Amino acid sequence: MTSTRGKKKPPFESGLVPAPGALLEWRDSQHFDRWQDRPCVLCDQPTPMRSHDGEPVHKACAEDWIAANPAEARLGRFASDLQSKSSQRAAHA
Description:
By secondary structure, the protein is mostly helical. 24% of the residues lie in helices and 4% in strands. It contains three helices and two strands. The protein has helices at 59-68, 70-73, 85-92; strands at 38-39, 46-47. It has a two-stranded antiparallel sheet with strand order 1-2. A hairpin with a 6-residue loop joins strand 1 and strand 2.
């Protein structure tokens, strides 16, 4: 049995990690903090953007990081939004 104590639950569920060079799908409003900019974890410049785990990060910085670190990216540090079944069907139509 694994203890969940000390492990913070992500603010919301993530979807797939895009292929290196592909764009992240961040459509959920929880990626945007309208109240406070914080330094990006990758470039240290202010950003209102947040990852699924709540890390302040520019979407472009996260995409560049995925392209530069493809093996580590598969662990899911930055991922696209979880797509609903209806939006998946619409994308394939």
